[in-house]
């Protein structure tokens, strides 16, 4: 039986993730003036201080955007709003803010921005979402493109010495690698966890661990990162799944062939990333565990949140 909020994404026992509804982009090639809306191609102007990135500390898709924002030194250019890790039937809530409303957007629910943009929207409200503070409209919830645009469209506002996370000479290889990581690992854990048939679960499980084994083999030649000596977008995307793996995916989503701590190459790699600024300091294991174990009632009807694992192992 699928978890209630994901019922619309179940097909013959398989979890099929919904497409992203808002796919406009913030681009330095926008023909719109400062303060303007999207141009005829859906491109909004790059303007520091104008946009607000909404995330949940629990969500791996949103976490990657926050890591990239930090790595590139964009924390002063793009505001950050944080939703409560516990979703109710209305979706993501700003209950972490003192008055239960985002202090910039003035909304209590992220769904308010979604409906202000498309009053007919009936899909699942997701993070990350970039919201225009001038109009209250959602610019994009297209999580794969958000981070790529932070790396390529906001270059005039990158900090000195910021890493080149999406280097042009390697983009073809990066795109292929990230597509495999998404299909089998990032989304693969969800395909296993939300499967409602044994066959669907087994397929996702097999593909997940085959890909983790392949990634471990790729890193076993001593390279510090997936693309060699350079940190890239691919590392960010893999990290947000690896850091949640033992805490939630191994048990809650039944991805239990191995823990990451039991896969030496991946464990060393994940800890290396964890120690970098922007990575470990943006991880909140308490919110991660509470989100997964308290919002997927069909998987964990008791609502009990596991006490472990001990997060100190990441710095041991």
TrEMBL record:
InterPro entries in the cross-refs: Glutathione-S-Trfase_C-like (IPR010987), Glutathione-S-Trfase_C_sf (IPR036282), Glutathione_S-Trfase (IPR040079), GST_Omega-like_C (IPR047047), GST_Omega/GSH (IPR016639), Thioredoxin-like_sf (IPR036249)
Entry protein name: Glutathione S-transferase C-terminal domain-containing protein
Pfam families in alphabetical order: GST_C_2
GST C-terminal domain span: 167-292
CDD domains hit by this protein: GST_C_Omega_like
SUPFAM superfamilies named among the record's database cross-references: GST C-terminal domain-like, Thioredoxin-like
Organism: Rugosimonospora acidiphila
Superkingdom as given in the UniProt entry: Bacteria
Region span, Disordered: 22-43
